[in-house]
Design goal:
Blueprint: H1 2-5, H2 7-13, E1 17-20, H3 29-34, E2 42-46, E3 52-57, H4 62-74, H5 80-88, H6 92-97, E4 101-104
Parallel strand pairs: 1-4
Antiparallel strand pairs: 2-3, 2-4
Length: 107
């Protein structure tokens, strides 16, 4: 759990809305099936419609994990703030993407 407790991780991860779902919880089957989650840890970044935008799978180092989140935040999938601005100007794709949710199944 070193990654989860690191300040670098928390800084990046807190830029997203979190939804934690316990893999072993009976009600999680719907999400496991929908996002094809077979094992843990898996983090799936989705928009408000639930469309998968990015996936981070498996155990990794803090640097590798934060590098992946940085790459995502700098990508055309962009940050919520920049997407909201585009959405307000009429960009429907950006408006959809501005509701990013980090779905994770970390133990």
């Amino acid at each position: 759990h070193y990654v989860l407790s690191s300040e670098d991780f928390k800084t990046k991860y807190n830029q997203f809305t979190h939804l934690y779902i316990d893999y072993d919880w009976e009600g999680s089957k719907e999400y496991r099936d929908r996002y094809h989650i077979k094992d843990m840890p898996t983090i799936v970044l989705v928009n408000l419609k639930g469309d998968e935008l990015e996936r981070i799978h498996g155990y990794t180092t803090v640097k590798n994990f934060t590098d992946k989140l940085d790459a995502f935040l700098k990508s055309d999938k962009a940050t919520v703030a920049s997407l909201e601005k585009k959405g307000l100007k009429g960009d429907k794709v950006a408006a959809d993407r501005s509701g990013l949710i980090a779905y994770n199944s970390l133990d």
